[in-house]
Design goal:
Growth Hormone, Chain: A, two-stranded antiparallel sheet, globular
Length: about 500
């Protein structure tokens, strides 16, 4: 086998493993969103029933229809509040902390070790999600009450954090490895393939959760898929760039603090995070909570959009958008122009989301596809992140930046809540009495985030076709390496 043939085989195998790894990553990442309503109704059924009884005892309704609408709105509020806690806060906090940990370790120990270490963590966490249960206060496991894990809901919450921590390492390590193995002219095609295949994990997850009636079994399937992925590690090679830096005992490997100094490098890292924030505003709020927003826009309860179906259609759009944005960046030979073009598409889709007449709720799903397509610049975003930093910091930046973007879902949710209270006007109005506040608050948030993202994209240097074989010192200066596109046996 010639050196060129061996190199091509290594690149293909690494790209395949990274793509399938990201597929499972997205599958498991979206599982909670897809089973959110079913799982929380199961775990919080008593709380929901008690709150509805309290509402009926305090309020008077003109007719049965208004009473049912108030009960539905109250249930949606409870599911929204707890869903945001588990997903937008706990899981995304796990993502950002895991992004830091896995990224630093990938720059210190190697891309492959962290790529597969993260798989073990999130796979085990998802399997354990299937077994959460209230613990009897007088049984052998009664001690769990002393540490706050006596209830199934609290166990669920902790495991979503742990799963997020594990999921954080998959994309960054995979993209970094592929970027360093592929020739610079073909880099965009390879990373686009990884992102496009990976995004389809959400579509697969939707059909699995639809076919599997018990939400617990969906978690078992997700966890088993992750463990099965470990067998593909055989034959995957480490990045030659990283191996040379490691053997040379290069300084600053995985030093996260370097991303905050000097200001030029810190500004670069911050700009990358800001340009990706609209993606998780769209997915984490507009799509995941389209049922609550739809009710706020006046769509009847029996015609309100289904979050699971909306997520599936959004990710169909995301897969198409990832492919299109990656190809566009190659055609234009520019990452920045491709990013800006898709920001414009995202803004147009958000406007359509809030202007579709409530009389036609079915059009929500078409808008979800459009939102996903506009947000499909994720592939270009992660590729750009890998291209903006030296080999000694690349995995740290490429793993942490996407997870800071995912973490922004927590900040977006908090701002959404603040704006909702402002539009609501009367915080004492009672649960479910938000009226149009939910959708108005979400619309205002989008009007702020997208322009900021566009400014951030314009501030970055163009990185298309740039060499990745370089390291950067603490003062921001860079040292060029001998060349790229080589690999080392793992």
């Amino acid at each position: 086998m010639t050196a060129g043939t061996l190199r091509d085989r290594n690149v293909v195998l690494a790209t395949l493993v990274a793509a399938l790894g990201y597929f499972v990553d997205i599958f498991d990442l979206l599982l909670f969103a897809l089973v959110r309503v079913r799982s929380l109704k199961d775990l919080l059924g008593k709380e929901i029933a008690a709150a509805q009884e309290d509402l009926l005892s305090r309020a008077k309704f003109a007719d049965a229809e208004s009473m049912e609408r108030a009960k539905a709105a109250l249930e949606a509020d409870i599911l929204q509040r707890n869903g945001i806690l588990l997903d937008n806060y706990l899981q995304t906090t796990g993502l950002v902390l895991g992004g830091l940990a896995w990224g630093i370790l990938a720059d210190r120990l190697g891309r492959l070790q962290m790529l597969f270490g993260s798989i073990v963590v999130y796979s085990v966490a998802n399997i354990l999600n299937a077994f959460v249960a209230d613990v009897p206060a007088d049984g052998a496991w009664a001690w769990l009450h002393a540490v706050g894990l006596g209830s199934a809901f609290n166990q669920y919450a902790v495991l979503r954090f742990v799963a997020g921590f594990g999921l954080a390492g998959e994309l960054g390590a995979g993209i970094t490895l592929v970027s360093e193995l592929v020739r610079k002219e073909q880099r965009g095609f390879a990373t686009t393939m990884v992102a496009t295949v990976g995004i389809m994990g959400a579509v697969c997850a939707y059909f699995v959760t639809e076919l599997v009636s018990d939400w617990r079994n969906a978690y078992l399937i997700g966890g088993m898929l992750g463990l099965a992925l470990l067998f593909l590690r055989v034959g995957v090679v480490e990045s030659g760039m990283f191996s040379r830096v490691k053997q040379a005992h290069g300084s600053g490997r995985g030093a996260f603090w370097l991303l905050g100094w000097p200001w030029a490098r810190a500004r670069r890292f911050l700009a990358l995070i800001l340009l990706g924030v609209p993606i998780w505003y769209c997915v984490g709020i507009l799509v995941k909570y389209c049922d609550a927003i739809g009710l706020s826009m006046g769509i009847p309860k029996d015609e309100a959009p289904r979050p699971g179906l909306a997520i599936m259609w959004c990710y169909v759009g995301l897969a198409a958008g990832d492919l299109a944005s990656g190809l566009l960046s190659q055609l234009l030979r520019s990452r920045r122009r491709a990013l800006l073009a898709f920001h414009v598409l995202t803004a147009a889709a958000i406007i359509a989301y809030f202007t579709v007449p409530p009389a036609h709720p079915g059009a929500f799903y078409a808008i979800c596809v459009a939102i996903g397509f506009g947000c499909g610049y994720w592939a270009v975003f992660v590729t750009t992140t890998a291209e903006q930093f030296g080999t000694n910091l690349r995995a740290t930046a490429t793993t942490s930046a996407p997870n800071f973007v995912r973490w922004s879902a927590a900040g977006s949710a908090a701002l959404w809540h603040v704006f909702e209270r402002i539009f609501q006007g009367d915080p004492e109005a009672g649960a479910g009495a938000a009226g149009e506040a939910k959708w108005r608050a979400a619309a205002l948030l989008g009007a702020i985030l997208v322009p900021v993202a566009m400014l951030a994209a314009m501030s970055l240097r163009e990185s298309f076709g740039s060499s990745l074989d370089w390291t950067e010192a603490a003062d921001g200066t860079r040292t060029e390496g001998p060349g790229e596109g080589t690999s080392a046996r793992a």
